[in-house]
Write a structure and sequence with these properties.
Radius of gyration: 13 Å
Number of domains: 1
Largest sheet: none
Shape: globular
Order of helices and strands: HHHH
Structural class: mainly alpha
Distance between the termini: 31 Å
Helix content: over 70%
Length: 79
């Protein structure tokens, strides 16, 4: 939503919905193997890292990088 509101980027909204749907399917365990979520999160880390390096602005790329890294780390913590 931030990309759409701040940058008028419809592609940002479309890709975020696609990634959210794919990650939701991974979490439900219905269609994809568990490692697919790791691949998707790693891809997001690369995208947000490149955007952060390019813009040097923490919001929104840096924030999303931190949140994606946290999500990836939390996936591997055994409660």
């Amino acid at each position: 939503m931030i990309g759409l509101l701040k940058g008028k980027s419809k592609i940002s909204l479309i890709l975020s919905v696609i990634f959210a749907a794919l990650l939701s399917l991974c979490a439900a365990g219905t269609i994809f193997q568990p490692y697919v979520a790791d691949i998707l999160l790693a891809l997001l880390l690369v995208v947000f890292g490149v955007r952060l390096a390019k813009t040097r602005k923490f919001i929104p790329s840096g924030l999303m990088l931190v949140l994606t890294l946290a999500a990836l780390a939390l996936r591997h913590i055994r409660w």
